[in-house]
Structures are given as structure tokens and as C-alpha cells.
Specification:
With 229 residues, the chain is α/β, with parallel strands linked by helices. It is 32% helix and 27% strand. It is built from eight helices and ten strands. A six-stranded mixed sheet has the order 6-7-8-3-9-10, sandwiched between helices. Strands 2-1-4-5 form a four-stranded antiparallel sheet, with helices on one face. The protein is globular. The two termini are 32 Å apart. The model has no long low-confidence stretch (mean pLDDT 94). The structure holds adenosine-5'-diphosphate and magnesium ion (MG). Adenosine-5'-diphosphate (ADP) is lined by residues 11, 14, 16, 34, 36-42.
Length: 229
């Protein structure tokens, strides 16, 4: 279980997260949904260890890891795929993929298995980061995170701006990654993609989790979103 308890995050004097209680169980898929500026990326970074908490704590399998820095969280099995993907432009796709393998112990996810998951990446292995399409960059960012063999994979708007056929490939991949054992936190601006994958849904608005529920209650949450905004 990866968890935030009573987490407050500030940017200067502006409070971005208010008393966030959020938990993702081992092996589950949780969706975090909210409009632009709601605090989704901040919450994901806070979970990954890339964002300091002013108040509150962070827990991994019952251990308080509030002050464990990002790179050590990564070695403990927490991987964040940020919204901007952070592909190294001057490296090839394969060089980008190989970056984490020197730092992490081996596990299920190998270069070959990542290429099996995203055959398009195998075709583009010698292409420079900048020459990849948006969809290929997203696959690359996910593949690179997988090579750290995470137990918790945090995905920040992985389907944003992608063509429907690519979105479908990403959805299939997320399902497969989860089937291989990683828990997933999926951030999106609406329910369209998450409703195909997640069991738990959380709405975030103005830095607060304002609604949580299961797949059976999505319609209720959707109308709440429409009324609220
Ligand atoms: N680095 C930053 N410095 C100052 N304010 C920030 C920074 N990052 C985000 N914010 C602000 O915090 C709030 C939440 O942002 P963010 O977590 O990026 O939301 P979302 O991912 O839901 O769009 C917004 O008001 C945003 O302007
Ligand atoms: Mg964001």
C-alpha cells in the first residue's frame, strides 16, 4: 500500500493540496480525475516522493517514507511517468530505455518484454527522442518506467492529446502492466479512459479530494463534476 495521510502541499504561499488522504492498494488501479489546475500532478509527485509535504505523511507498506527522496523511492518500487514525459531528446529510444537498467535490480520487465508490450518502440529503437511522435514518446516514457520494475506505477495523463488508436494501445498496455502485478495510479481529466481500467475513482477539485467511489458510482461522480463546474 502506498499512501498519503493528511498531506498539505504549498507552492510559496499558495496551497495546492489540502489534507489529502489517498491510498493505492498493491495490485490495484486507482483513477484520479480532475480538471486542469485541480492538483492532480502535484498529488502524483507527492506520492512519488518528488514533492515535499508541509504537513502530513507518506507511507509505503506500513513504513513512514515521508522524507525519503525521489531516487530512493524509485529504488523502492515507485515510478512516476510525468506529464511532459522527460524523454532525453539526443538519445535514441533504446538509449532512453536503457537508462534505468543500470540503477535497478532486474525483474519481470526487460527490454525485450517492453518491446513486446509496445512493438512500435522496437521498430523505432534507433530513432532519436525528438523524432518520435507523441504516442511513441508516451510508450517510451512508460517503457522506461517499467524497466525500474515498479510495484507502483504513477501515470500523469498518459493518453492526453493522442490519437484514438494510440489511446487504445496505451489502455491495453496499462491492463497488461497491472496483470503483471504493478499497482497503478492513473491521472486523467475525465472518466473516459479510467472507466475502462480502474476499480477505484477519486475526484480532485481545488486541491481537495471531493469524491471517491467504485465503478458502480461513476455516473453519480460524472454528474457531480458537471454540476460543480
Ligand atoms: N511549480 C509550481 N509553482 C507554483 N504553482 C504551481 C506549480 N505547479 C503547480 N502549481 C499550481 O498548483 C495548482 C495545481 O497544479 P497541478 O498539480 O499541476 O494541477 P493539475 O495537474 O490537476 O493540472 C495549480 O493552481 C497550479 O497553478
Ligand atoms: Mg497535471
Amino acid at each position: 500500500m502506498l499512501e498519503l495521510r493528511g498531506a498539505d502541499v504549498f507552492y510559496g504561499k499558495a496551497q495546492a493540496l489540502h489534507e489529502i488522504n489517498f491510498a493505492i492498494a498493491k495490485g490495484g488501479i486507482a483513477a484520479l480525475i480532475g480538471r486542469n489546475g485541480a492538483g492532480k500532478s502535484t498529488l502524483l509527485r507527492a506520492l512519488a516522493g518528488g514533492q515535499a509535504l508541509l504537513h502530513g505523511t507518506r507511507w509505503l507498506d506500513g513504513e513512514n517514507i515521508t522524507s525519503l527522496p525521489l531516487h530512493l523511492c524509485s529504488r523502492r518500487g515507485i515510478a512516476l511517468v510525468p506529464e511532459n514525459r522527460q524523454i532525453f531528446p539526443s538519445l535514441t529510444a533504446e538509449e532512453n530505455l536503457r537508462l534505468p537498467t543500470t540503477l535497478h535490480p532486474p525483474g519481470y520487465w526487460t527490454l525485450q518484454r517492453v518491446y513486446g508490450l509496445f512493438p512500435r518502440l522496437a521498430e523505432r529503437r534507433a530513432t532519436n527522442g525528438t523524432s518520435l511522435s507523441g504516442g511513441e514518446q508516451q510508450m517510451l516514457a512508460i517503457g522506461r518506467a517499467l524497466l525500474t520494475n515498479p510495484r507502483y506505477l504513477l501515470l500523469d495523463e498518459p493518453t492526453e492529446g493522442l490519437a484514438p488508436v494510440v489511446v487504445d494501445a496505451i489502455i491495453r498496455a496499462i491492463g497488461e502492466i497491472n496483470a503483471q502485478g504493478a499497482a497503478i495510479v492513473l491521472v486523467e481529466q475525465n472518466f473516459k479512459v479510467p472507466r475502462q481500467l480502474a476499480q477505484a475513482f477519486h475526484l480532485i477539485d481545488s486541491g481537495r479530494i471531493v469524491w471517491s467511489g467504485g465503478a458502480d458510482a461513476i455516473d453519480q461522480a460524472q454528474s457531480r463534476m458537471m454540476i460543480g463546474h
